[in-house]
């Protein structure tokens, strides 16, 4: 192992693990999201056990030399007859009961979900920002149920959905913290949502809004990166979830030059996590993907696989889901576009695409298949090509509805036409 090797390490589909030939028991795990985590394996009572040492990278994360030092220390503990995991748990429990602040607990939790390969960890991080700002310096174990409930009710007065999402994220983190003995009890478990029942979301952009939105994405005076703009259009053209589009990888794309171009979303990146999802791609979607690959080529030189929509902030990783939300929020709040849009989210573009398909007289079950909505059919779990032709019909219908709304040069380019 060398730092050069570790920086270049990448997992295209599932998580990969590489052992260190120099330091026995030390290995590094790499997720498709680019998170690299050090672990140390040892035997206890004839069985293999493993502990996490930390995330690879610059300070405060672990570099190669420090990871080897920590592994050597854990190996010495085992030679002395101790269980390194039990000692690590005791160390963390002691810290949690004395010095671990709420902000530090949040950071540990985000480190945990990143290492587990959760693609939406940025969303969790976003929902923890407000509670971190409020309780960050307080010892986590000292926080009371009353304090958190009052805080969540304050959020609910402005946004029920935001309060409920924050409550759900903190509750999940608190459950993880209890299991790790960071805090004594998860007093949020079983509580009703502070924001109450939310109104079912049904926001669909009008044709005028779609046209204005597509025009604004290419406007020179609207601050948005090229890849973010392409990803947002990608949601509209494919009708897939924002996180799935943002995380699209080159290895997931097939037959782009052929008659049936398609995108296979791996099981781990789908919402139901049960089976991979095949998405037929329209010519306009293929054209958009090629533009995105060209725009992101400098982020992955020499790599066999790379993100289609590359982030400019993280080394060789895909866009974060929240980057799309931030761009849409800036658009909606921009006074130059006042009156042209009512509030919408990236997910509303997916709902809009489905509505466009149905407006083109595509049967509802065809649209449902394209959306990958779970119908409880066991056969669909095993059938990669389940309703491929029907999904392709829906995809082409969306293209037919969207192209007339694109700015003229973009529409012509999507059709492969020349223009002055």
Please describe what this structure looks like.
There is one protein chain. The protein has 420 residues and is α+β, with helices and mostly antiparallel strands. The protein has three domains: 3-87, Double Stranded RNA Binding Domain (2-Layer Sandwich); 102-179, DNA polymerase, domain 1; 207-414, Orthogonal Bundle (hpI Integrase, Chain A). It is 48% helix and 9% strand. The protein contains 18 helices and seven strands. Strands 1-2-3-4 form a four-stranded antiparallel sheet, covered by helices on one side. A hairpin with a 6-residue loop joins strand 1 (16-19) and strand 2. Residues 415-420 have low confidence and may be disordered.
Indicate the percent of residues in helices. 40-55%
Distance between the termini: 54 Å
CATH architectural label of the largest domain: Orthogonal Bundle
Average predicted confidence as pLDDT: 84
Show unreliable segments: 415-420
- Would you report the number of β strands? 7
Q: For the largest beta sheet, what order do the strands appear in spatially?
A: 1-2-3-4
Number of helices: 18
Q: How would you characterize the largest beta sheet?
A: 4 strands, antiparallel
Shape: globular
Rg, rounded, reads: 24 Å
Q: Which fold name is given in CATH as the topology of the largest domain?
A: hpI Integrase, Chain A
Supply the CATH superfamily name of the largest domain: Intergrase catalytic core
- As for the number of domains, it is 3
Report strand %: 5-15%
| SS class | alpha+beta
Q: What multimeric state do the chains show?
A: single chain
**Helix and strand string, N-terminal first?**
HEEEEHHHHHHHHHHEEEHHHHHHH
CATH class of the largest domain: Mainly Alpha
């Amino acid at each position: 192992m060398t730092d050069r090797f570790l920086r270049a390490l990448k997992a295209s589909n599932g998580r990969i693990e590489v052992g260190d030939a120099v330091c026995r028991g030390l290995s590094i795990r790499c997720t498709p999201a680019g998170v690299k985590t050090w672990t140390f394996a040892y035997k206890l009572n004839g069985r293999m056990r493993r502990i996490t040492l930390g995330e690879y990278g610059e300070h405060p994360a672990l570099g190669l030399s420090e990871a080897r030092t920590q592994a050597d220390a854990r190996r010495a503990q085992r030679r002395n007859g101790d269980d390194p995991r039990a000692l690590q748990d005791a160390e963390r429990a002691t810290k949690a009961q004395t010095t671990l602040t709420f902000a530090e607990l949040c950071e540990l939790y985000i480190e945990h979900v990143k290492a587990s390969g959760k693609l939406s960890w940025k969303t969790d991080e976003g929902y923890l920002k407000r509670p971190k700002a409020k309780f960050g310096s307080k010892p986590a174990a000292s926080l009371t149920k009353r304090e958190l409930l009052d805080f969540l009710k304050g959020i609910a007065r402005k946004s029920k959905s935001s309060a409920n999402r924050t409550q759900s994220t903190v509750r999940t983190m608190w459950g993880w913290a209890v299991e790790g003995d960071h805090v004594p009890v998860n007093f949020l478990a079983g509580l009703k949502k502070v924001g109450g029942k939310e109104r079912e979301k049904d926001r669909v952009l009008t044709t005028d809004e779609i046209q204005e939105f597509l025009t604004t994405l290419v406007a020179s005076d609207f601050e948005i990166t090229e890849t973010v703009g392409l990803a947002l259009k990608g949601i509209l053209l494919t009708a897939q979830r924002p996180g799935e589009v943002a995380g699209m990888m080159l290895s997931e794309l097939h037959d782009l030059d052929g008659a049936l171009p398609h995108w296979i979303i791996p099981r781990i990146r789908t919402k139901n996590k049960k089976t991979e999802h095949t998405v037929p791609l329209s010519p306009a979607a293929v054209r958009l993907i090629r533009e995105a690959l060209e725009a992101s080529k400098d982020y992955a030189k020499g790599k066999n696989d790379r993100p289609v929509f590359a982030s400019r902030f993280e080394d060789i990783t895909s866009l974060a889901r929240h980057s799309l939300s931030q761009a849409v929020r800036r658009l909606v709040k921009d006074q130059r576009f006042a009156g042209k849009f009512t509030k919408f989210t990236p997910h509303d573009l997916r709902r809009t695409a489905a509505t466009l398909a149905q407006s083109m007289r595509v049967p509802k079950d065809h649209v449902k298949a394209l959306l990958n909505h779970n119908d409880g059919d066991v056969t669909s779990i095993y059938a990669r090509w389940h309703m491929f032709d029907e999904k392709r019909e829906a995809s082409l219908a969306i293209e037919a509805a969207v192209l007339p709304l694109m700015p003229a040069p973009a529409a012509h380019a999507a059709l492969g036409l020349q223009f002055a």
